[in-house]
Amino acid sequence: MTAEAEARASGPGQTLGLRHVIVLTVGIVIGAGIFRTPSLVAANAGSETVFLLTWFVGGLLSIVGALVYAELASTYPSAGGDYHFLTRAFGRRLSFLYAWARLSVIQTGSIALLAFVFGDYIAAVLPIGPMGPAFYAAGAVIAFTLINWLHVHRGMGSQMWLTAMEVGGLLLIIGAGLLFAPEGTRLPPPSGEAQVGLVLVFVLLTFGGWSEAAYVSAELRGPKRRIAWALVGGLTLVTVLYLLVNYAYLRVLGLDGIAGSEAVASDMMNATLGPTGAVVISLMVAIAALTSLNASAITGARTSYAMGRNFPQLAWLGKWDEAHGTPRNALVAQAVIALALVIAGAFTRDGFQHAVEYTAPVFWLFLLLVGVSLFVLRARDPGAERPFRVPLYPMLPALFCLTSAYLLYSSLAYTGASALFGVAVLGVGALLLLFLEVPNEEEVTA
């Protein structure tokens, strides 16, 4: 079966424009991280030059990864995204483990954590008691699941408005830093050598999420190579915004001020706009969290849908509602698990947040395997039509794989025994495989 026939058979129709995928990419990348991780980067950068340069390098490395994904997504467009690429390259068992980890912890954990970020900041502006953050978090999960359940255009419409507000908020920070930086607020830069490897871990974490656009590749109208424009265009915009935001932080607080801040955006806005800045930044972070949450809900359900298409016992997940353009059952399953994590987080907040972080090694492991799948599929399927090819092959894909391998190592090194949580999740998925009927490898349907 050709890639085109597979895309038609998998359910989704080509209902999304280029702007939708760019907005999805920008919205899911610009999350709460840009309001927090600059402090960690500054504390280990050693100089302002290294501080800014690592954000630029992080953007370039993300664009390299986007080029790898663009070739895979344009050659094998599918709602399954990474799951589909891994199935083709390594078989159903490995791709099932990926889909299982994504459904059980990675994507649902991200949705729950983003919901709590939203709840925390909204509760600071509109307090409703000690359980307020959890109440707001649960409400966000339910609301955005319902929006996407109603119709794909409802979800994408929400994404466009949220992303516009999110980008507008970053432009406000940039403007405040460039136009209203008070005199004499900056401190000398901290002494010490730059820990470039550690800094890149934090920077690339803040750029994370761009690969999610692959999950709507089968729904993009027009030539398949347009996915490359969407990914690269979205990441270029994010890189420019990140550089300008961090330059604004530097102008107001200096490197030492950024490093010593627990809420760098809030401190910068307080220094430039006074107490009003604290309310403004709370709303901005809440909007950023909702933007990433909505995008995560859109793309996460498509992995479960693809898995359901391949495993008969999970066929209920693989149903696509053509009238509404959504995998409704997968959206509901994703929301139920995310809500369970929100409820757990309401009582054990620290444990919940750590549990989500424990999945980092699993995430980087599968991102590395997706990079390797490009080499495997080029060798195994040389005759496939490739509307977009990674330039400078094999150097750029190799760079992407090396970067992912380094981040896999770093996530294991910095989490230590906590990484066993991700291993345990994969172990449960491996046990489930013993009870699932695995179809023939030739029958790739999602």
UniProtKB/TrEMBL annotation:
<feature type="transmembrane region" description="Helical">
    <location>
        <begin position="329"/>
        <end position="348"/>
    </location>
</feature>
<keyword id="KW-1133">Transmembrane helix</keyword>
<feature type="transmembrane region" description="Helical">
    <location>
        <begin position="96"/>
        <end position="119"/>
    </location>
</feature>
<feature type="transmembrane region" description="Helical">
    <location>
        <begin position="131"/>
        <end position="150"/>
    </location>
</feature>
<keyword id="KW-0812">Transmembrane</keyword>
<keyword id="KW-0472">Membrane</keyword>
<dbReference type="GO" id="GO:0015179">
    <property type="term" value="F:L-amino acid transmembrane transporter activity"/>
</dbReference>
<dbReference type="InterPro" id="IPR002293">
    <property type="entry name" value="AA/rel_permease1"/>
</dbReference>
<dbReference type="Pfam" id="PF13520">
    <property type="entry name" value="AA_permease_2"/>
</dbReference>
<feature type="transmembrane region" description="Helical">
    <location>
        <begin position="227"/>
        <end position="245"/>
    </location>
</feature>
<feature type="transmembrane region" description="Helical">
    <location>
        <begin position="278"/>
        <end position="301"/>
    </location>
</feature>
<feature type="transmembrane region" description="Helical">
    <location>
        <begin position="49"/>
        <end position="70"/>
    </location>
</feature>
<dbReference type="InterPro" id="IPR050598">
    <property type="entry name" value="AminoAcid_Transporter"/>
</dbReference>
<feature type="transmembrane region" description="Helical">
    <location>
        <begin position="21"/>
        <end position="43"/>
    </location>
</feature>
<dbReference type="GO" id="GO:0016020">
    <property type="term" value="C:membrane"/>
</dbReference>
<feature type="transmembrane region" description="Helical">
    <location>
        <begin position="360"/>
        <end position="378"/>
    </location>
</feature>
<feature type="transmembrane region" description="Helical">
    <location>
        <begin position="162"/>
        <end position="182"/>
    </location>
</feature>
<feature type="transmembrane region" description="Helical">
    <location>
        <begin position="390"/>
        <end position="409"/>
    </location>
</feature>
<feature type="transmembrane region" description="Helical">
    <location>
        <begin position="415"/>
        <end position="436"/>
    </location>
</feature>
<protein>
    <submittedName>
        <fullName>Amino acid/polyamine/organocation transporter, APC superfamily</fullName>
    </submittedName>
</protein>
<feature type="transmembrane region" description="Helical">
    <location>
        <begin position="194"/>
        <end position="215"/>
    </location>
</feature>
